[in-house]
Amino acid sequence: MCLTGVDYFSTLGYQPAIAALAAGLLSPIATIVLVALTLFGALPVYRRVAAESFRGSGSIHMLEKLLPWWSGKIFVLVLLGFAATDFMITITLSAADATAHAIENPFTPPWLHGQEVPVTLLVIALLGIVFLRGFKDAIGIAVVLVVVYLLLNAVVILVAIAHVATNNVLITDWWAALTVQHGNPLVMVGIALLVFPKLALGLSGFETGVAVMPQIKGSPTDTDDDPAGRIRGTKRLLTTAALIMSGFLITSSIVTTLLIPQADFQPGGPANGRALAYLAHEFLGPLFGSVYDVSTICILWFAGASAMAGLLNLVPRYLPRYGMAPQWARATRPLVLVFVGIGFVITIAFQASVDAQGGAYATGVLVLMTSASVAVTLSARSKRQRWPTIGFGAIAAIMAYTTVANVVERPDGVRIAALFILGIMVTSLVSRVRRSFELRATSIVLDPSALDFVTSDAEDYDVIRLISHEPDEDTEVEYRNKSRDEHRFGNIPGNSPIIFLEVLPSDSSDFEEDLLVRGVVKHGYRVLQVTSGNVPNTIAAVLLEIRDQTGTIPEIYFEWTQDNPISNMFKFLITGHGEIAPVTREVLRKSEPKAKRRPHVHVS
What is the pTM assigned to this prediction? Predict the structure, then answer.
């Protein structure tokens, strides 16, 4: 919970000031609207996401299953672009805000003023060092930071409440000013709903809450397909964090609105981006205020930890499996270095400005929450659950409105997200092309019949000859003609046994697959059948597996295709077909450097 909380709870460092700047005297009412959406919207949505996507893939995996072929992969890449926006901007924005708190402290040396960019880069680098050391260290640090930070916030808020209690005139003056500005309570609520999208940063943390599910211990009775204990733990995590944060958001909004002049919230003012820190210095003195500043700086620095954890969970889960990232992208340390480098670029581009990055952060958060709401709505509908479908549909509509309103208000967020999406698309395409000649099978199993076919040929004839066959008309004539043609044009000896190898089509957008090779007899001919979306890579993998199982190097016979080579290339990249024979040979050449151990490819 604390690893998720360093992102979620750290927003107390700037959320009250953002609410006051956006809503003015209506800040407490607008914050109550935010809390209501948190407890009755985001929380139920993500509790269901935790139950249905318990391997840490979040709502993205739920939506991936709804769309087939390349449309699903492209949709996931777009969502990953928004997720990258959310998580990367969490890292850079929090680091920039930590720097702002440090430089605003009265004890900070004057020479640090104006050095926001290098200080922020140092903060991001320190975060990367923690993750290079190991994940357990990150969790231990998160627990200490969250406990200390929440205790200090509780002290500040309780002292502030005591000041309000001894000055009741503050409440009456606030209400009188509200009435003069907005008239009746209904108008106030309506305006609070309109400014609510500007407070959306207070919803951060839920997507990372489900992203860290693999780190939750669970129960001894948990299984891979039904981790009931882990799901219960995640729901407790989400609920506890939401309740704690809701209490802090409401109370902090009330005391900062009542005790801080509105002019001090404006850009350049002493409370801009640091409302609770302002109260800590004002009511508890510079010493306690400095301790509070240090705690805020630390948790804002480490707020990127939950975002980094989310990135380290999401990227290896999707991109390498799609063939859209190199294999090293599954390893933690290289990815940490990549993300730190991206964080440096973003920080320099935005000159470590918190306000400049706020729009992109809110856009990423809201798009992911909207996609989660849509995912659980579709899930409830598919299971014919009427009232959950209606409820989640209403939440999805509210999230969609909030997202659109935020985009209209701050279009820079979409522009930044578009850069992330474009970057992911381009690098994914380049990686997919570069990895197109790799073996893609994560595992290969020959069933007993298939194994019997190849071992009997290896033992009785010391040769295994396979004919590549694209199943068309399932007739005896088709198999007889294919056998006759390959014997004649491929110069197969007349008394040599043959086995047909057929690749049955599946989703060609999948890159990695578990292959099951089945042995069947069709019209008196022995046939090996395997289902895959990538024909040449699958044939190469099956040939190498036959070699390893029998100790005999197999030979395979192909027929040349008649299409244009350029069109065949694109067919291969998109549909997994194209010019099968030369691609199969190239995959074998790259996979087996020793020519004498390489299965033989004949084409005629």
Answer: 0.72
